[in-house]
Amino acid sequence: MTRPPGFRSPALTEQPDLPHWQQRLAELAERHQVPGAVLGIARGAHTEVAAHGVLNKATGVTTTPDSLFQIGSITKVWTATLAMQLVDEGALDLNAPVADVLPELRLADPRVARQVTMRHLLTHTSGIDGDVFTDTGRGDDCVERFVGRLDEAAQNHPPGATFSYCNSGFVLAGRVVEKLTGMSWDRALRERLCVPLGLEHTVTLPEEALRFRTALGHDSENGLPPRPVSTWGLPRSAGPAGLITATAGDVLTFARSHLAGGTAPDGTRLLSERAARAMTEHQVELPDTHALGDSWGLGWIRFGWDGHRLVGHDGNTLGQSAFLRVLPEQDLAVALLTNGGEAKDLYRELFGEIFAELAGLALPEPPRPPADPVPVDVRRHLGRYERAGSRIDILEAADGPRLRHTTTGALAHLVPEPVQETALVPVSENQFLVRYADSPSWIPVTFYALPTGERYVHHGMRATPKVS
């Protein structure tokens, strides 16, 4: 990556120049059609927050530094932190079957119900179909009721056999937290993390979000400008997997507690240093190391940038996207919260500048097709791959291989274009790239087989089994 104009070698004591980053946020958000965004940069105990745009294009309410956005799956790191607190307390063993805590657990495969562990859940290796969003109501028992229906979710691969991003597994982890604390997941989050961290603008329920200046998501189709979505949030039962709504400042306070080895700003210990460190350590390799990180910890995604190790997480809900990156060696954390548009492209360009300027390191280049076409025999990859919420067809057309992705089930009516078809560009025999309409980004597609022979496609961080 080329260093930006005016680049200076960073000093670890250097604090972010807020007016500069305010200007860059505004310029880049406009370029990428992001209606509203908040950028937070924390180095040590010092935090700067910039805001731009509007929270809702229909109302024109201005985005401010204290505005709340849905942080989506960044929530998973908070749920993992709750689990690790219970490990610290001796109430939970990461390697013991969760059925020891939940003897009532029923899954599609009874053997898996007896085998799956909290480590499987926190590393997305349980094999439980991950994109199940059953709405089990608004009561405090919604997570319990969701888990009570997990036997309806397919088992996509044996526990530990491969990585497949799994929302359902984190809801199950949240249920373990509920059982061991005697609280709903929402209350456990509030009492065990939000209160000791002093997070007064972090909520999980829409009626709580209404107390604050809160963003609405936006989507777009057919090249039109982003427009407000018709549904604000996902069902409450998805809470442990992705329902926190917060300010950038609160997200950074949470991140700083991990940078501080598990302590709150006032010195209160939330996690042991050993547990905080374990969450960042390598747990699982990924079938595809180009889509996001290169490996996974306990809750955290691990990133290798320019020879340096970062952790973080992304979050995507209905028209909202959030990004968190933490560079422990420089005591630096950066969060970006957005409500639509080409948010990932905004993230790449803005974080590229921030980490070059403040940390002296470059983001990895995004995947791109090879300069010269790569001849491959795609016939062994042809066919249908399917899991809950997603169907992928690999087709052979006159102009080359194509991928057709169909969003199915409960999510189909929540996305603007449930069926998308695009060219499948070869990189190697098993590695391909696709680029969907209205997006400039190339997305990896990886074909592979388990040692036992079952064939999968890895796309969008999910392992989808071949069914025909």
Automatic annotation (TrEMBL):
Alphabetized UniProt keyword annotations: Hydrolase
Sequence ranges assigned to domain Beta-lactamase-related in this UniProt record: 22-343
**Per its UniProt entry, which superkingdom is the organism in?**
Bacteria
What name appears for this protein in its UniProt entry? Serine hydrolase domain-containing protein
**Which GO terms of the molecular function aspect are on file?**
hydrolase activity
The secretion signal range is none
The species this protein was found in: Streptomyces parvulus
**EC number(s) for this protein?**
3.1.1.103
Would the keyword Transferase turn up in this protein's UniProt record? no
- Cross-referenced PANTHER family: BETA-LACTAMASE-RELATED DOMAIN-CONTAINING PROTEIN (PTHR46825:SF15), D-ALANYL-D-ALANINE-CARBOXYPEPTIDASE/ENDOPEPTIDASE AMPH (PTHR46825)
Enzyme superclass (EC): hydrolase
Under InterPro entries, the record lists: AmpC-like, Beta-lactam-related, Beta-lactam/transpept-like
